[in-house]
Amino acid sequence: MSDAVVIIPTYNEKENVERMTRKVMSLEKDFHILFVDDSSPDGTATIIRHLMDEFPGRIFLEERRGKLGLGTAYIHGFKWAINRKYDYIFEMDCDFSHNPDDLIRLYKACAEGGADLSIGSRYTKGGKVENWPMKRLLLSFFASIYVRMILWISIRDTTAGFKCYKRNVLETINLDGNTFKGYAFQICMKYAAVRHGFKAKEVPITFIDRIYGESKMSTSIFKEAFIGVWKMRTMKL
Prior knowledge:
One of its GO terms (molecular function) is dolichyl-phosphate beta-D-mannosyltransferase activity. This is Polyprenol monophosphomannose synthase. Belongs to the glycosyltransferase 2 family. InterPro entries: DPM1-like (IPR039528), Glyco_trans_2-like (IPR001173), Nucleotide-diphossugar_trans (IPR029044). The chain is α/β, with parallel strands linked by helices. It has a seven-stranded mixed β-sheet with strand order 3-2-1-4-7-5-8, with helices on both faces. The protein has a two-stranded parallel ribbon with strand order 6-9. Helix 5 packs parallel to helix 8 and helix 7 packs parallel to helix 8. It is globular.
């Protein structure tokens, strides 16, 4: 039984899901993967089921009806992982914008480095972004500054979605209180952890924009985050 599970939400990721699985399975540490698939019409879940046969006891699939959003997918995955007593619970995208090799570094930051939450950070010293247009890079960078100013947290990459939590962090946070779906969800999880007194550590990564598949980003996700940070200050987290 591994002590670590990587939660990967999927929607139309047939180009990436097998490559991602084989890469994580090849790492020197034994990670499990939980895919939370929102009824992908492209057959993503079918590919995952074949991989489950090839890697029994290491790959898991939770299928949901309809496209219900990133935030609810992670909440579903967190509860699944908590019930199965994993000590280290990860968030990661399926599109290789997050390098699976960095899972080891995030794990060590929590297991050996004293962090309760480790964050794969684009904006801490040593972190960087590749293949993003300058407009999007600046928007993301200044969005993190905006969040830090409102919530008074020191995390530099507030919207990062590549993270490792110790289980007790997720057991402490009011998961059902975080109803956001996109960037706001990621911000809210970090804010809740810090507000409960947990130690967050940023680990520099290189973020690479997806090559295969379509981005799930939309204007509504940015609007949710812009307004949502004000709500977070009074939410029961």
